[in-house]
From TrEMBL:
Residues 67-277 form the Calcineurin-like phosphoesterase domain. It is a multi-pass membrane protein. The chain crosses the membrane at residues 21-45, 329-356. Pfam families: Metallophos. Keywords: ER-Golgi transport, GPI-anchor biosynthesis, Hydrolase, Manganese, Membrane, Metal-binding, Transmembrane, Transmembrane helix, Transport. Its main location: endoplasmic reticulum. Metallophosphoesterase that catalyzes the removal of a side-chain ethanolamine-phosphate (EtNP) from the second mannose of the GPI-anchor protein intermediate. Participates in the glycan remodeling steps of GPI-anchor maturation to allow an efficient transport of GPI-anchor proteins from the endoplasmic reticulum to the Golgi. Belongs to the metallophosphoesterase superfamily. MPPE1 family. This is Metallophosphoesterase 1.
Length: 367
């Protein structure tokens, strides 16, 4: 009887060890997959991004070079639209991507080109305050990094010869916000013209003079274009959507407002958002406009942002892609399959993975 009990005890102990070993393997696999998909993948992908080189190096021309990041259309969900799980997932993705980019790339300034929130026009004061608090958490940054946002409120100003325009206010219908925006743009245009003149007119004062440099125009709506038909690349609009005509004042600025901005400001570069897709458009006398894709996985499978090296006279841009959503989902699916195989093999419902693979290869060879 003692021998039977001893044998039963050893068998029970062996079973417990096998189960604990299985549990350890399952926990290790789950932890490794979560660590890769939710942390490491952002470092592995963004690490491959490099700052572009300006044609005329700043140290040779006496000009300072600015490292700037440009992203757009984060669309943080509020309390009305979207499932809470979708909201949690997208915000985690953007937070990890942004914080990883800050740590690896060390930009000096970050510009977000509008559509920060998805429900700003419906939010109550308390909901708006909560959304702002979440935005500040997701896009927190060191004190030495400047974060500038082209928001829905009146926001026109300068930073290193960037002109940020609230393009929502350029409807041209004479509203108070539109009139104020147009008046400020005209004032900025006057200052820029004074700085460009070799012999300043009597209308120019010393306080108005700025370093002679064509500005970079930053706004949410793109300048007028008929459609995305001429856009190309992995992150351009889907083929079936590229030929859809743009509606003025809805998909892009009106032709009139676009011509005014180009005439008044004479920018060397335009960066915009709104379309959620990438595009390069050449306007007027060779002014390049870059449409920055959405930074949110809710809008794209392959979000990205723009990295810019800028001097007062030159600029160079490069695109940094974020992890593909399909890659993350495929990794999780493979992990679930692997866990299922481990479980089946443990309960002897399936031969060991190595033996199963060997038998499968033999069958394939015989056929």
């Amino acid at each position: 009887m003692a021998l039977i009990r001893l044998g039963f005890g050893r068998q029970h102990l062996c079973l417990l060890r096998r189960r604990s070993f299985l549990l350890s393997k399952l926990i290790a696999v789950v932890f490794a997959v979560l660590l890769f998909c939710e942390f490491l993948i952002y470092y592995l992908v963004i690490f491959r991004c490099d700052w572009p080189e300006v044609k005329t190096p700043a140290h040779n021309s006496g000009q300072e070079t600015l490292k700037a990041m440009f992203l757009a259309d984060t669309h943080l969900l509020g309390e009305i639209r979207g499932h809470w799980l979708d909201k949690l997932r997208r915000e985690w993705q953007m937070e990890r991507a942004f914080q990883t980019a800050l740590w690896l790339l060390q930009p000096e300034v970050v510009f977000i080109l509008g559509d920060i929130f998805d429900e700003g026009k419906w939010s109550s004061p308390q909901a708006w305050a909560d959304d702002v608090e979440r935005f500040q958490k997701i896009f927190r940054h060191p004190h030495h990094v400047l974060l500038k946002v082209v928001a829905g409120n009146h926001d026109i100003g300068f930073h290193y010869h960037f002109v940020m325009v609230n393009s929502v206010a350029l409807e041209g219908d004479g509203c108070n916000l539109c009139s104020e925006a147009e008046a400020e743009i005209i004032e900025i245009s006057h200052k820029l013209n004074c700085s460009r003149e070799e012999h300043h007119s009597s209308r120019c004062t010393d306080e108005q003079l700025l370093p002679a440099s064509a500005p970079v125009l930053l706004q949410h709506f793109p300048l007028y274009r008929r459609s995305d038909a001429n856009c190309s690349g992995d992150d351009a609009a889907p083929l079936e959507e590229r030929d859809i005509p743009f509606k003025e004042r809805y998909d892009a600025l009106s032709r009139e407002a676009s011509q005014k901005l180009l005439w008044w400001l004479r920018p060397r570069l335009v960066l915009s958002g709104h379309t959620h897709s990438a595009c390069e458009v050449l306007h007027g006398a060779g002014t390049m406009e870059i449409s920055v894709p959405s930074f949110s996985w809710r809008n794209r499978n392959n979000p990205s942002f723009i990295m810019g090296m800028l001097t007062p006279t030159e600029y160079a841009l490069a695109k940094c892609y974020l992890p593909y959503e399909n890659t993350v989902l495929a990794t999780y699916c493979v992990a679930v399959g692997f866990l299922a195989v481990l479980m089946l093999a443990h309960f002897k419902l399936l031969a060991s993975p190595l033996l199963f693979g060997w038998n499968l290869l033999r069958k394939l060879k015989t056929t």
